[in-house]
Amino acid sequence: MNREKPFFSKEAEMSVLGGIILDAQNQLNHIMPKLKQEYFYFTENKNIYAVILKMYNSNEKIDIVTLKNRLKRENQLSEVGGDEYLQMLTDKIDMIPNIDEYANIVEENYILRHLIDTAKIIVDNCKSEKTVDEIIESAESNIFQVRESRYKTDVISVSESIPHVQKMIDVYMSRKEHVTGVPTGFADLDDMTTGFQKGELIVLAARPGVGKTSFALNMLANQCVKTRENAPKFKGIIFSLEMTSEQLIQRMLCSYSGISSLRLRQGNLSKQDMHNLSVSFSDFTNSEIYIDDSTKGTPLDIKAKSRRMKIEKDVDFVIIDYIQMMHLDRKVENKQVEISEISRSLKLLAKELNVPVIALAQLSRNPERRENKEPILSDIRDSGSIEQDADVVIFIHRKFREGVELDDAKLIIAKQRNGPTGEIEIHFDPARTLFKQKAKQQ
User: Fold this and answer.
1) Dihedral Cα 135, 311, 180, 226, nearest 10 deg
2) 54, 109, 226, 375: least CB-packed within 10 angstroms?
3) Catalytic one among 134, 242, 288, 341?
4) Ramachandran angles phi, psi of 156, nearest 5°
C-alpha cells in the first residue's frame, strides 16, 4: 500500500517543542538523544530547537519567557513567527504525556526523507562514472548510518554523559575480570591491553613465516570457541587475502586439537588424534567464526561486507590478513600512499562498526640487517600512516631454533594509546601452528 501522507508533520514538531518548553527539566534529557536539529522539517521549528539546545548546554532555565528573550538576543524571534507562534506551541496542555510519540513521528519522517534523498543519490551515482563497487559502498554506508542513528546518539554534553560513565566504572569495579574488551586468550597480553577495545585498530605485524596468521587464528579460537566456563563466546570474521577458507579451518583444527598439521595431511593419525579431532569438529560447529576468502581486497569491499556482517550477525571483531595484500580500486602515485589510505579506512571502519579491527601487517627486512633483530615501528613495510592510525601495534618476534619442539617467541607491544608498552614471552609450536602462554616461574 502506497504512502499517501507527506513526509513531515508540523503538528508533531510543534507538539515536541511545546512539550519541551512547558516541562524542559523532565522532557529534554531523553528527547535530545533521540532528536537532532536536522530532524525538523520546518525552518522555524529547526531554529527554535537549535536555540533550546544552546540554552541547555549553557545551563540556562528553559521556559517560554527565557526562550523568547534568547531568540530576541539572536535576532531570530520574528524569523520563527514571533510571540504568536511561541504561544501556539504551548497552547495544548495535553501534549506532554504524548511527547515521546510526537518525537517518534518527527524522527520517522526524517528517516523517510533521508531514504528518499539516498535513493536520489544512488540514481545520480548510477548515471555517473563511478564504479559499481563505489556506488554500492556509498549506498550501503548511507543506509547503515540511518539504521545506526536510531540506536546510537551523539554526545550532547559532558554533564549528560557522566551518569553513563559512572555506570561503566561501577561495572569495572564490581567485576572480577579486568578484561574490558574482546579477550585474546593470552593472559599476559590481556593483562596489558585489557582486551581489544571497540573502535580500535590493532595492527599485528611480523616478518613472513613468523606466525602472523597462526596467532590471529589462535585468537579466533580463543575468542569464539575455546572459552572458559561461563565466559561469553564472541563472533568474528576474518578476511583472508592469502589463504583459502579450507586451509584456515584446517590450521585452526590442528592448533585446537593439538594435532601436527603434517601428520594430518599424511593421514597418519592415532585414535587419540581422531578423538581430539572429533571434539574439535563439534566445538567449531557450535562457534560463530566467519571466513571470507573471496574478497577483492579493496577497502570498499571489506567495508561493505563487514557492515553487512555487523547488521546480520552482530560480529564482535574483524580480522584482515593482511594489509599489504589490500589495494585501492584506483591508481595512486606509490604504494605508501595506497597503504596510508587503506590503514585510514580500516581505522574508520573500526569506529563506524564500533568493533576492534585486527589488521595483520608485514615487516620489511630492516630487522634482519640490524644487530638487534627486534622490530620497531618504522619496520612496518610500506608503513605510510599505519603506525599513526593504529591504536595498538603488536610485533611477533621469534627465535628460530632447529631440533626443538617449541620456539621461543616474544610479543612486543610497541604502541598502545591507552595502555602500557612492553614485551611478553610466549612459545610457538611450529608443528601445530600454536602459540602458547609461557608458564610463569615460581
Assistant:
1) -110
2) 54
3) 242
4) -85, -45
Please name each of the domains of the chain with its CATH number. 10-159 (1.10.860.10), 181-437 (3.40.50.300)
Alpha-carbon distance of 319 to 358, in angstroms, equals 5
Distances (CA, A) of 256 to 35, 233, 243: 49, 16, 19
Exposure b/e, 342-360, CB count within 10 A at least 16 = b = bbbbbbebbebbebbbbbb
* Cα→Cα distances 206→209, 244, 363, Å: 8, 21, 5
Residue 252 contacts by C-beta under 8 Å, 6 or more apart in sequence?
217, 220, 221, 284, 289
Helix (H, G, I), strand (E, B) or coil at 434: strand
Rounded Cα gap, residues 28 and 336, in angstroms: 49
- Identity of the highest mean pLDDT range in 170-184, 219-233, 420-434: 420-434
**H or E element in which residue 432 lies:** none
C-alpha span between 212 and 198 (Å, rounded) = 21
Distant-in-sequence, close-in-space partners of 441: CB < 8 Å, separation ≥ 6: none
Sign, CA dihedral 76-77-78-84, equals positive
Instruction: Render pLDDT for 105-149 as a digit per residue (tens, 0 to 9).
Output: 998 898 888 888 888 888 888 988 888 877 887 787 777 766 666
Our answer to whether residue 242 is catalytic in this structure is yes
* Whether the bond into 256 is cis, omega within 30 of 0: no
Query: Could you tell me the pTM of the whole model?
Result: 0.63
> What does 362-405 look like in DSSP terms, one character per residue?
EB-SHHHHSSS----GGGBTT-TTHHHH-SEEEEEEEE--TT-S
What is the DSSP secondary-structure string of 278-316? HHHHHHHHTSEEEEE----S-HHHHHHHHHHHHHHH--S
Query: If you search the block for the grid coordinates 590503514, which residue do you land on?
Result: 343
Residues comprising the chain, all counted: 442
In the chain, what percentage of residues exceed pLDDT 90?
9
